[in-house]
Specification:
Strand content: 25-35%
Structural class: alpha+beta
Number of domains: 3
Number of strands: 18
Radius of gyration: 25 Å
Distance between the termini: 25 Å
Strand order of the largest sheet: 1-2-3-5-6
Helix content: 25-40%
Shape: globular
């Protein structure tokens, strides 16, 4: 998948400028009433948007979903659906965020939602009945299936569900996470869960020819001579496996630990280790799904100290989908891959 070239700054901005001129009934050639007025309105609009945290997080999640699909590389085409002018006899239509064309030729319309459960991690997602019906009418008109891509912030989980799994609740429709997981179609977009043995670790070995002693204040410095990566105590030497293991360590959901190895008063090595919070005695544990790993990466790269700093990232098309080659056979990094199918039909 490659991004088709276009110039949004040039064309989208000029279109917005033309719309401003139409609304204000001014000549586009008049800088005092057109250009200056447009710049001031744009400045004020951006200022209001930057002060609206809910809007910013919603836009970041929409961009994250787009980047996730590009990185998975499993769809044939991805297009923003709610861009540009739309004319319709039915004024109650609601336009979803994206149109997807899958590898089998089927098309989906997807509405992306960022759902933050505040202090209640089991809180159900809700959507207005009227709004949902508008989306359904649009998808019926376009002869495409409609899905909701919901990002459950507290759980760092994506679910892709059809509207018929929502429950009626007054003038709203609701959906809890457990029902969303049972009806999840993310596997159709290339998502799957990954498991491996534990712990995953990388060990930084000290250069024994340079100072590495612990001082009286219980602090010390050392020079790294070598770094090795391990899975369940087995050293990983294959470059592909090292790349996979590193990605799983940094962006998976296992707990981080660190241990200092000493010989007397001298530093031998530091082990950085990732372990699951529970051992189910099955020989491996799930590190996370590709969508969870990517979301952790995306959130890490778009915020600093918990504050949102960016909305979009450039990602390498197909990177995540190719992280583990389809025909990959593990050596010192055994892998389990699970594609979860929905229990309810599409």
């Amino acid at each position: 998948m490659e991004r088709l070239p276009r110039d949004p700054i040039r064309f989208d901005l000029v279109n917005a400028f033309a719309e401003f001129g139409c609304e204000e009934k001014v000549s586009l050639r008049d800088p005092a009433t057109a250009t200056d007025g447009f710049v001031e309105r744009t400045r004020e609009s951006v200022r209001r948007s930057l002060s609206n945290e809910a809007l910013l997080h919603g836009l970041r999640t929409q961009s994250m979903f787009e980047a996730l699909l590009v990185s998975l590389g499993a769809v044939e085409l991805l297009k923003q659906e709610d861009a540009g002018e739309i004319y319709a006899f039915d004024e109650t239509l609601e336009v979803p965020d994206f149109r997807l064309v899958l590898r089998d030729g089927s098309q989906l319309l997807v509405e992306v939602k960022n759902f933050y459960q505040t202090n209640n991690a089991r809180k159900s997602f809700e959507v207005d009945e009227e709004y949902l019906e508008g989306l359904i009418r649009y998808s019926t008109t376009m002869r495409c299936d409609l899905f909701f891509a919901i990002y459950w912030v507290k759980w760092n989980v994506w679910t892709l569900v059809p509207p018929d799994v929502f429950q009626f609740q007054g003038n709203k429709r609701s959906l809890d996470l457990l029902d969303a997981m049972k009806a999840n179609h993310m596997a159709s977009l290339g998502d799957y869960a990954i498991g491996t043995r534990f712990p995953l670790s990388f060990v930084m070995y000290a250069d024994t020819t340079k100072p590495r002693s612990i001082g009286p204040d219980q602090t010390g410095t050392f020079t790294v001579a070598n770094v090795e990566v391990y899975c369940a105590g087995h050293r990983i030497t294959d470059l592909v496996e090292m790349g996979i293991a590193t990605y799983l360590m940094f962006y998976g959901k296992w707990e981080y630990e660190a241990e200092l190895e000493l010989a007397g008063n001298e530093i031998e090595a530091v082990e950085h280790r990732w372990v699951p919070d529970e051992d189910h005695q099955q020989g491996f544990e799930i590190v996370g799904s590709l969508s969870e790993l990517f979301s952790t990466f995306y959130r890490f790269r778009t915020q600093e100290e918990g504050e949102l700093t960016r909305l979009r990232l450039d990602v390498t098309p197909g990177f995540l989908g190719q992280l583990i080659p389809e025909d990959h056979k593990g050596h010192n990094l055994p892998l389990w891959r699970f594609r979860l199918q929905p229990s309810s039909p599409c």
